[in-house]
Amino acid sequence: MASATRTIAESAGVPQTRGAYHRLLEEISSGRIEPGSRITETELAERLQMSRTPVREALRRLEAEGLVTHKPRVGVIVRQLGYPELMELYEMRWVLEGTAARLAARAASEVELEELAAINDEMAASAGDGAALYALNRQFHTTLIAAARNRYLVKSVRAIELTLQILGPSTLREMSRATEAIAEHARVVEALRARDGAGAEAAMRAHMESAQRTRLRQLRRHGRLMESEEGPEP
Question: How far apart are alpha carbons 31 and 218 in whole angstroms?
C-alpha cells in the first residue's frame, strides 16, 4: 500500500517537474536568467509556487543536458559558453543543417516545400515582431530537418539547439538580421524546389555562417563572450 501511494505521488510530481524544466529553459533562452547566474532551489520554488522537489529534478535534467553546472561553494549556475565551444557548436550546425538541406532536396514532398515557402513568407510579413520571427524561424528549420527523413540527424540537431539556448535571445530581434535570414531562407527553398542537393547544402551553410557572425557580434557587444571555458564534462 505504501509503495502504491509513493508511486501515485511520484506520478503526480511529473507535470510539476516538466513545468519547472520548461519554465527554466524559457527564462534561460530569453535571457532573463543570464549565463553565470546562480540558481537557488528555494528562490525558484517560491517564484514558481511549487515545492523544491520538482525544481531540484528540473535542475538535474538541465545539468545532464549541459545547460547548468554545479560549482563547489557556489551552487547551481547557468553555464557560460566560451569562444572555442561556441565555434564548435556552430561548426556542427553547418554540418548537420547543411546535410539536412541536401537530404531534403531529395526526400521532401511538394507539400513540405510549399510549407517552407509559406513559413518564410509569414516571416517576411512579421517584420519587427521578434517573438513571432523567432517562433517562425524555429518552425522553418524544424520543418526542413524533418523533411530530410533521418531521425538520427533530427536528434543531433536538437542537442545542438538545446545547448545554444544558453546564448539568450534570438539574433532575429535585430531587424537587419531578420531581413538577411528571410532572403537566405528563400535561397534554400529555391534550391530545394530545383532538387539541387549541393545548392541547398551550400545555401544552408551560408545561412548558418551568417547567423554565427551576427551572434558573435551580439555577444561581444554585450560583453558576454568568454575567450575560454572549462566546457562540459566528457
Answer: 13
What's the CA gap between 38 and 2, in Å, rounded?
A: 37
- Give residue 232's region: left, alpha or beta (phi > 0; psi -120 to 50): beta
**pLDDT single digits (tens) 157-199:** 999 999 999 988 888 878 889 999 999 999 999 999 999 999 9
Domain boundaries 83-221, CATH class: mainly alpha
> Do 153 and 103 form a contact (C-beta atoms < 8 A)?
yes
Q: From residue 126, give the alpha-carbon distance in Å to each of 119, 130, 207, 208.
A: 10, 8, 19, 21
C-alpha separations of 157 from 66, 76, 142, 210 in Å: 15, 26, 9, 18
- Three-state SS at 168: coil
Q: What is the pLDDT of residues 139-158, one digit of tens each?
A: 999 999 999 999 999 999 99
CATH architecture for segment(s) 9-78: Orthogonal Bundle (1.10)
Mean pLDDT of 224-234: 53
Domain regions of the chain by residue span: 9-78, 83-221
The grid cell for 98 is 547543411
More confident site: 12 or 80: 80
